[in-house]
Queue: 4 jobs
Job 1
Amino acid sequence: MKPSNNKTTFARVTATAFAIAMGIAGWSNATAAVAGTKLPEGTRLMTAFELYTLYRDKTWQWPDGAGRMQNTDRRFSAWVDGTGGQSWAEGRWIVTDTGLLCFEAAWHATNGKFPAKTCFIHRIQDGTIYQKREAGGAWYVFRHAVAKQTDEAAKLIADDLVSQRLEVVKATLDAHKTE
């Protein structure tokens, strides 16, 4: 695919980036319903070790895709297949002692390749984890102290739902590029 500098191509790539970023947010209807939770007094930032333990070798299931945080080299890979089209990503996941989990990856779609960085901040109190997307997201309960099936954290699973599907999405996008 030959890159173009026209405004239409830029708008399509920007729209795809937005759709992918929304997929990465991991937002479901249940999460949206509790968004805007008031952060209780006394919460503290989660440490890099706590975040690493929570996310390492896990797949985060999204409404229209999934992202995998591998322990080895902190590799991040993902696929999205929704109303905005198909895309896939490969990059790294990063955790900090300031409560941040970030995905830095190159996303690929039929209209191009672009870098994206998506971060979530985490705070904890008495076993309840609060999360919000940076920048401008709203706090919500990511995992209750006594975990609930409706917690967003319940979508973090050990099974690798990404690797096999990622190859299918890559092949499909490659086929569209050659058409």
Note: Residues 1-23, 25-33 have pLDDT under 50 and may be disordered.
Job 2
Amino acid sequence: MPKSKRQAAYVTIQLNLPNGGSFGPEDLALIDTIRIERSIIGASRALQLSYRKCWLSVDALNRTFESPVVATFPGRRGGGAEITQFGERLVALYRSIERHTSNSAKKSVDEITASLDWSFDPKARVSAAARDSA
């Protein structure tokens, strides 16, 4: 594959919190989509996830922290959910952690990327693992 078409390696952050909660890229995507759609059901449609999964994720986020991340307004016309001030701060803090981590890890990630075998097929890896376990 030509170098110009290769996707850059990146670091993702999953915060595993001491109270048993977590916050990661999926939560961030859900919050961003709720912000745009102004509803959990709208976010579930946009993300192509079940409403139940989205609602349970919002509920878990709201119970993980002392302050709610998403405020819901059942039956409200023009939107049934919005991101709270605390939710906006949580997103900003998470993105700050992502930036700092990416900057700190850049040299190491670049070295790992330089050692990649570009002919690797991840689908073949899954097939081999399935065959080996059979």
Note: The radius of gyration is 19 Å.
Job 3
Amino acid sequence: MTRGDRRRPRRDDPEQEGLAPTRVRDLLGVAAVTAVVVWLLVRVSYGQLPPLPLLAGIVLYALAALEAVIAVIVRSRVSSSQVGRASGQLHPLTAARVLALAKASALLGALAVGVWAGMGIYLLSLSESSAADHDRPAAIVGLVGGVLLAAAALWLEYCCRTPDDPEDAAGASPSGT
């Protein structure tokens, strides 16, 4: 077989159907672009913003914890082959909804990381401002919450994979060659 004979499946290849796993580099790109935009906006209008409450990003922690619990449940059902339509099993439609939740939450986590990072970077540049001193802890709480949410969402997405996914088998390719 020559080099030209081997085909790697592409994302737009109709033979390669289904959702592709969320890539961390895509989430990092979203976070970076969001951070730059927020930094620019805050730089222009920081004096007009109200003080940030310390627990402004706490909802991100709650979402991350919820997704971690869902991931444990889904992982146990998938690993014990309890996916199906019977009573007590994880319904396939529910699994698809959980996967959609994981993908959306990963994006939300990346956006939150970008927002809080952009805000935090600006606040670090204000060394002698009491308002910035007050807002820095809130930015840190939000940033950590965004990272935790993105990590929990990626883990939940991973837990939704079936045990016979081609990507899970070492050295196996989707086309079977």
Note: Residues 168-177 have pLDDT under 50 and may be disordered.
Job 4
Amino acid sequence: MFYRPEDGHGLPHNPFNAIVTPRPIGWISSRSADGVNNLAPYSFFNAVAYEPPQVMFASTSAKPDQTGTKDSVANILETGVFCVNIVEYAMRDAMNASSAALPREDDEFVHAGLETVECSTIPCARVANVPAALECKLTKVITLPGDANRVVFGEVVGIHMRDDCLVGGAFDVTRYVPLARMGYRDYSAVREVFSLTRPDEAS
């Protein structure tokens, strides 16, 4: 099968959502200028640079009570900071609950029954007891073609790691089982890992 996105795919569900998978989930916490905490999961998320460490996430729709975007992007534009909370399988239901389209004055931490902890380097809340959290300062927001498509880039200025995830000096993802986004309503849990030696590395 071949199709041009501009012509439509003719299938019951959009296959593009299932092709680029699995995708890590950026559970983005932010705070509005008037002090309201916000928490929302974004599956268009990834790390993009090592030195300095940088991440990105993309927001692809808008809310009626925001101007052309969602609460996360609006808050980050106001304050210049955000935190990425890493989602483990055990927190899948809370993550899903935080995706509800709530009014901007509502706190998703409260809605999802999550405990908050204040970040160390930025004025923002983070999710307590997540495997890792990345405190970020905004570097750039890029507007993409299409309605409300924005990519947010941030420099990581503080990193929290849960002690039980550190094994032999390495961050071991199998200790917490990362949750990944698949297509449609599907998710996946990372329970197995393997290593490959690059051709230009010594064996």
Note: The chain has a mean pLDDT of 96.
